[in-house]
Specification:
The chain has a single domain, classed as Rossmann fold. 29% of the residues lie in helices and 23% in strands. Strand 5 and strand 6 form a beta hairpin. The radius of gyration is 18 Å and the shape is globular. 32% of the residues are buried.
């Protein structure tokens, strides 16, 4: 790798190459405002049960209608920033949760999380996902908005050896490497986004 290359610039270039939306923010409050704007502008996701177009039992019909408002899942935030996010979300008619993801199977619009590290050479996020709430927020939300402090970006995965050893020292351990939005070409070799995870990945590079 070119040692003169700025890791932040390289990360941004590589992340955009795999369909991530990358923006720079000056503060966590700016990141919170960004996540709310994305949620405001997107169409509300809705769980559609197979056969919803056909007559259903009362339980089946209730499941189809469980999603009544937009939802932002934000596990792992400090109490201060979660309160800021929750208050602003309430003003816009958006439900904000930090736990109980399994109770919101009707659909989660935005997963708002903090990334532990970034790998510049591949535009990859590294997230300590030992918490089930955090795993669900990054996997089943329709859009994933991740905040990555610029100081946490490393040039290569080898530069993360010590940090990864620390992350995985407590067992059981679940560390996720996220590169771009979810994609697959399993179905008739046609590339599809959002099948196995979020349809969009937004990365906010935080000045710190």
């Amino acid at each position: 790798m070119n040692e003169n290359r700025n890791p932040v610039e390289l990360f941004e270039e590589k992340a955009k190459a795999v369909s991530a939306v990358v923006s720079k923010v000056a503060s966590m409050r700016e990141a919170v405002a960004y996540a709310l704007d994305v949620c405001d502008k997107k169409q509300a996701c809705q769980l559609l049960v197979s056969g919803c177009s056909e007559p259903l039992s009362e339980k089946g019909q209730a499941l189809c209608e469980t999603k009544q408002q937009k939802v932002i899942a934000a596990p792992g935030l400090s109490p201060e920033f979660f309160a800021d996010l929750e208050g602003s979300a309430r003003e816009r008619g958006i439900l904000c949760i930090e736990k109980g993801m399994r109770d919101h199977l009707g659909g989660v619009d935005i997963g708002f999380t903090l990334a532990d590290f970034g790998i510049a050479e591949t535009g990859t996020l590294v997230i300590n996902s030992n918490s089930e709430e955090l795993r669900l927020a990054t996997m089943i939300a329709e859009f994933h908005v991740a905040v990555l402090p610029q100081s946490k970006i490393r040039e290569t995965s080898r530069d993360l050896e010590a940090e990864l050893a620390a992350l995985t020292s407590v067992q059981p351990s679940y560390t996720a490497f996220v590169t771009g939005a979810s994609r697959t070409a399993d179905i008739e070799r046609v590339l599809a986004l959002g099948v196995h995870g979020p349809l969009e990945l937004h990365i906010l590079l935080l000045e710190d």
